[in-house]
């Protein structure tokens, strides 16, 4: 069994396994209030708590969601909210066998001494916040930091990102939350795919070095990597097969098989691209569950379909289920367009 003790170890392993279950992945709806405001503005709605609640209610009460979704990452506000009928969102999720999760980082700020790069806030007070989130029903956490290829990345920025993720992961496990480890390597730039591979290998090497140094239990974490692709402004796009080949090469070189699940972010890919890339990665057996933790690639059509109108809720929920099912099939390597 696992080396590090701690009262939550068994539960952590169980939570991670539940989230990494065949044919299921994560619905990420943990947009901060600022980001939620941008999404609502795109369909002409004001950024009020009422509108955020209505939108999250639409997503989380979708009938049949639990067939394809094993976990949902919430923003703090949503963790404490209920449906308009008074049922806690946490209970709505549990009734569908979906594990509630919580975004715990406090966002990015400039990193002094770096090449215009940023670092991620949120370690102060994290232990007590995590204990509170556990009491509220959360069983996993997410911390997103970023690495920019056009900005370098500098050795300082990579080290800071890796160390912050490792501290967060140890604190989460200590409080019963499975940490999702997310160093997002941004798509920005005109670099070729080989350059992304090189940076991703460097970042994940440091992340695992510090995870080990902080005695994090690898069986009780999940990863949220970016797929290895060319920069968004690179002259040629890569095919799903090429993206799968590079991404799996990187993961096999850097990620121990003890890690139960790899839950990719969509990072600005279109809905269909994100599905096709995931499908390509599941064409042969992998040492880990390879799945999704998409926000935009699950929500874009839903938002457009909803438009803030009660009469569109059913259609918007059907749109969510279509994307969720497509990604479920892609997780199983059985998607066809
Ligand atoms: P996207 O899938 O939109 O990139 O979001 C990823 C994320 O970190 C949300 O939790």
TrEMBL record:
Q: Does the keyword Chloroplast apply?
A: yes
EC annotation? 4.1.2.13
Identify the Pfam families for this entry. Glycolytic (PF00274)
What's the superkingdom here?
Answer: Eukaryota
Checking PROSITE patterns in the record gives: ALDOLASE_CLASS_I
Annotated Gene Ontology cellular component terms: chloroplast
InterPro entries in UniProt: Aldolase_I_AS (IPR029768), Aldolase_TIM (IPR013785), FBA_I (IPR000741)
> From the UniProt record, which GO molecular function terms apply?
fructose-bisphosphate aldolase activity
In its keyword annotation, does this UniProt entry include Transport? Answer: no
The record's catalysed reaction(s) read:
beta-D-fructose 1,6-bisphosphate = D-glyceraldehyde 3-phosphate + dihydroxyacetone phosphate
> Annotated pathway, please?
Carbohydrate degradation; glycolysis; D-glyceraldehyde 3-phosphate and glycerone phosphate from D-glucose: step 4/4
Which GO biological-process labels does this protein carry?
A: glycolytic process
Signal peptide limits: none
Which keywords describe this protein according to UniProt?
Chloroplast, Glycolysis, Lyase, Plastid, Schiff base
Q: Where in the cell is it found?
A: Plastid, Chloroplast
Protein family membership: Belongs to the class I fructose-bisphosphate aldolase family.
What protein am I looking at?
A: Fructose-bisphosphate aldolase
The record lists the organism as: Anisodus tanguticus
* UniProt lineage: Eukaryota, Viridiplantae, Streptophyta, Embryophyta, Tracheophyta
